[in-house]
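ok, trying the design again with the full structure, not the truncated one.
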């Protein structure tokens, strides 16, 4: 039976992007169900596949996994050939540390710059807390790039779960025209160039659902 990933709006659901892009980039076959976050039946439908009642949620037969990072761990364990964590123990520990840091943190950036693929690139001044989050993210990225640049364009060379965890940050920094260092921009360009990124973005642009709380220009809804 095929894996089924249940996700929210592709325009806005940053947590959903993480396992989706990991599976696409590494060629793990799956079917997807998209449920709008404000749909009247969201709660009932998501409760059937997710213990937390939130998306993303992965169903592998009768095995249900929710929480984006737990899904990524499940995928890495179930599909070792996908190489979703670095092979060697030191970079693997490093990748897990920064993936967990992402999962648990950066609330100011998440709140201030909601993921919104449809919004044209328009600069938006950061709060000091969001700017501090960006500085920490850039420090994480530049440390990885310094160490692993020879192995490829992603944080640990090839695409791993660490890149999946930071993919929504790439979207946020891009959409809100946040100024970043040349190495960070080069990393972001590598993520944006992925065919999987383009596929997700195209699906997001096709959506017509609007969530006011994720539109920073509300009541104006800027669209590409
Ligand atoms: N920590 C969770 C966060 C999941 C989450 O907050 N998902 C949002 C959509 S991006 C959601 O389901 N919201 C609907 C709700 O809270 O009712 C994860 O890593 O998956």
């Amino acid at each position: 039976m095929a894996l089924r990933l249940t996700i929210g709006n592709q325009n806005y659901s940053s947590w959903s992007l993480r396992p989706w892009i990991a599976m696409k980039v590494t060629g793990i076959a799956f079917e997807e169900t998209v449920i709008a976050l404000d749909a009247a039946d969201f709660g009932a439908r998501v409760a059937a596949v997710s213990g937390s009642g939130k998306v993303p949620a992965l169903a592998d037969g009768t095995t249900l996994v929710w929480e984006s990072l737990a899904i990524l761990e499940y995928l890495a364990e179930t599909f070792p050939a996908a190489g979703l964590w670095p092979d060697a123990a030191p970079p693997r520990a490093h990748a897990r540390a920064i993936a967990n840091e992402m999962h648990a943190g950066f609330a100011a950036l998440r709140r201030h710059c909601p993921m919104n693929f449809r919004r044209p690139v328009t600069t938006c001044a950061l709060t000091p807390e969001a700017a501090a989050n960006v500085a920490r993210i850039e420090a994480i990225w530049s440390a990885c790039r310094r160490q692993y640049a020879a192995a490829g364009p992603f944080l640990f060379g090839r695409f791993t779960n660490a890149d999946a965890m930071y993919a929504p940050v790439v979207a946020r920094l891009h959409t809100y025209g946040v100024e970043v260092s040349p190495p960070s921009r080069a990393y972001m360009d590598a993520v944006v160039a992925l065919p999987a990124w383009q596929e997700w973005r195209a699906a997001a642009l096709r959506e017509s659902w609007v969530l006011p709380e994720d539109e920073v220009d509300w009541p104006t809804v800027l669209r590409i």
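Keeping the full-length input from now on. The chain has two domains: 3-82, 89-204.
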